[in-house]
Specification:
- The chain is an all-alpha fold and 209 residues long.
- The protein contains nine helices and no strands.
Length: 209
């Protein structure tokens, strides 16, 4: 005999907290922002998120607020840092850095795609640098956690390093960011970047002629 359930016995799913709902909407919106830029409609985002369009405007003041949240999510390095911290330290340094470079490339590709889509439509606001060195404090804060995770990858070999792990991590991060510029002709592969960083430009040790 089939088991029956009364309506009163069914449990309704617990409603999402506001922060959870906003995060769910942003997650659905991000790939659409990359594809369509700021012209993506809130109706399309709602369909992707499986919600009514009105729910978006209960979570965000307007579409601009949603686009700003998408940019903030793209900048967040949390997942990138978690991936960097999961890299096995018992591998050779070259393998560690190659894996790290792939992770950083994925992060910068995502960030560049969202920023590029919004900038192309004139919807990306770039905060004015306010630090003494002309750098944005928010940008530096976003780079600090990945840089610390990169430094940890150098530490097992610190006895053979010419510089401290923190300084090498800073240089490696800057190299990866520079190499990841969109539109760069014939970009270096990940393996080439790591080899160049660890072994330099010369085929043999010594001064260039």
């Amino acid at each position: 005999m089939a088991e029956t359930f009364s309506t009163s016995s069914r449990r309704r799913a617990a409603p999402m907290e506001p922060d959870q709902r906003r995060a769910m909407i942003v997650a659905a919106a991000l790939p659409l922002v990359v594809e369509y830029g700021s012209s993506v409609s809130t109706a399309k985002i709602a369909r992707a998120a499986g919600i009514g369009e009105g729910t978006i405007f209960r979570a965000f003041a307007d579409k601009d607020a949603l686009l700003a949240a998408c940019m903030a999510e793209a900048v967040r390095p949390d997942d990138t840092v978690a991936h960097l911290e999961s890299i096995a330290l018992d591998q050779p340094l070259t393998a560690r850095l190659t894996e790290a470079a792939e992770v950083m490339h994925g992060y910068m590709t995502r960030l560049g795609a969202v920023a590029g889509a919004l900038a192309a439509a004139g919807r990306l606001e770039r905060p004015a640098p306010s630090g003494k060195d002309g750098r944005s404090p928010d940008r530096e804060a976003g780079l600090a956690a990945p840089r610390a995770a990169l430094a940890a990858l150098f530490e097992p070999d610190q006895d053979t390093l010419r510089l401290a792990p923190e300084r090498l991590a800073d240089a490696f991060q800057l190299m990866l960011m520079s190499a990841g510029r969109p539109g760069a002709p014939d970009p270096l592969t990940t393996e080439e970047l790591v080899d160049l960083f660890l072994n330099g430009a010369l085929t043999t040790p010594g001064e260039a002629r």
